[in-house]
Amino acid sequence: LVGVAIGMALLPFLGRGLGVMLLDMSPYHPGIYAGVMTAMVVVAALATLAPTRRALRIEPAAALRYE
User: Is 57 exposed, middle or buried (0-12, 13-18, 19+ CB in 10 A)?
Assistant: First the structure.
């Protein structure tokens, strides 16, 4: 979420470069902001899902004994 916040803060300054890629839309369109923010949060959540589930199955005492 911190990365999304930083990116959203920098997007107005980088809007001109983004405007070249967006053919018929303004880079300052709220839908662009919402879509990018949603996509980034979903990707981050999916990327952390498998490691989190695996870590929750390990007994903490067994993990400490292993080290």
Answer: exposed
The pTM of this model reads 0.57
Residue with tokens 């959540």: 45
CA distance 52 to 18: 34
**Angle formed at CA 60 by CA 59 and CA 66, multiple of 5 degrees:** 90
How many residues are there in the chain?
67
* DSSP conformation class of 23: S
Where on the phi/psi map is residue 22: left (φ > 0), alpha (ψ -120 to 50), or beta? Answer: beta
The one-letter amino acid at 31: G
Provide the percentage of residues in the chain whose pLDDT is more than 70.
82
Please check whether residue 33 is in contact with residue 11, taking contact to mean a CB–CB distance below 8 angstroms: yes
